[in-house]
Amino acid sequence: MKKIFITRKIPEIGINMLKEKDYEVDICPVEKVPSQSKLMGHLKEKPYDAIISLLTDKIDASIFRAAPNAKIVANYATGYNNIDLKDAKKRGIVVTNTPGVSSLAVAEHTMALMLALTTRLIEGDKFVVAGKFKGWAPDNFIGTDLSGKTVGIVGVGNIGGRVAYMAHHGFGSKIIYTDVVQNTKIESDCGAQRFSDLNELLKVADIVSLHVPLLESTHHLINESHLKLMKPTAFLINTSRGPVVDEAALVRALESKTIAGAGLDVFEFEPKLAKGLRKLPNVVLTPHIASARESARRDMAVLVAQDIIDFFEGREPKNKVV
Ligand code: GLV
C-alpha cells in the first residue's frame, strides 16, 4: 500500500482520490506552516512513497533524506521555487506542479489590485470606515482611468496572457510585454507589442504587472535602477513571487514617489514585510491569496492526486517538472 504524506490539509477531493486507490494518506497535524524540522520528524515516522508539498515548504536535501522512499513530490502550487530541483533530479525524484488551473483566479486578482490602485478603492474604504466622510467633494480621492493606459506585462504565460486579455478587452488598455519567447496569440488577440528590453517597457508602461517564475535570473528582476526608469505616475503589480522585486528598494521608491503605487500579493521574505511597506498609503497588500478560490484550489488538489496516481500506475505525470 502506497503511503502519501501531505504537509497541510488540501481539499478533500484530492485526498479522496488517493484513498480510493487504497493509498494510506497522512496529513501533517499542524495549523500553520510547519518548520523544516517538524516536517522531517513526521516524514521519518513511516516510509512514505510520495509527498504533497505546499509553496511554503522548503523541499531540499534534508527533506529527501528524511523520506528516502519518496519517489515523487507533487507541489500544490504553480510555482516550484520552494523545491531544490537539482537535488531532486540527482536523486531521481519526480517533481510535479499545478499549472493552469489557478490562472483565471490569479489574473482576476491582478486586475483587482490594478483597479484598487487606479480607483484608490482601499484609501476610500479606510476613509469611510474611519468616519471621515463628511460629504461629496469634487477633489475627493481623484483616481486614474485604466482605460487607454499602457499595461506592461512581464512574462506572458497562462496568467500574464489572461491579464493581457482582461486589461485589453475589459478596459481598453494598450498591452506591451516582455518574455523570453514571442506570444503571437496575445499579439493577435490583444494587439500586444513585444519589447525585447525590459528597461524600455518600464519607461513607457503606466502599469507594470509581473508574471514570471522565480528563478536565479528573475531574482530582483525589478531593482532600484529599474524602479527609477518607471514613470512617476506608474503602478507596479506583483502576483508572482516576492523575491522578483527588491522589496526594500520598492519601499524607497514608493516613499520618494519615484513611482505612484504598488499592488502586492507576494513579499520577498513572506510572511514578513520590508520595513516601512505597511505604513505607505500608496500600496495595496494582500496575503498571497491570488489563487484562493474554491474552484482553483479544488482543481489543484485533483492535479496533485492525479499526478501521483499516474506515477504509481506507470504513466508519466502530466505536470512533471523534472
Ligand atoms: C501560488 O502562488 C502558486 O504558485 O500556485
UniProtKB/TrEMBL annotation:
Family: Belongs to the D-isomer specific 2-hydroxyacid dehydrogenase family.
CDD domains: GDH (cd05301)
InterPro entries xrefs: D-2-hydroxyacid_DH, D-isomer_2_OHA_DH_cat_dom, D-isomer_DH_CS, D-isomer_DH_CS1, D-isomer_DH_NAD-bd, NAD(P)-bd_dom_sf
Family annotation (Gene3D superfamilies): NAD(P)-binding Rossmann-like Domain
Taxonomic lineage from the root: Bacteria, Candidatus Zambryskiibacteriota
Domain D-isomer specific 2-hydroxyacid dehydrogenase NAD-binding: 111-290
GO biological process: amino acid biosynthetic process
Record-annotated D-isomer specific 2-hydroxyacid dehydrogenase catalytic domain positions: 4-321
Transmembrane segments: none
UniProt keyword annotation of Methyltransferase present: no
Name by which UniProt lists this protein: D-glycerate dehydrogenase
GO molecular function per UniProt: NAD binding; oxidoreductase activity, acting on the CH-OH group of donors, NAD or NADP as acceptor
Pfam families noted in UniProt: 2-Hacid_dh, 2-Hacid_dh_C
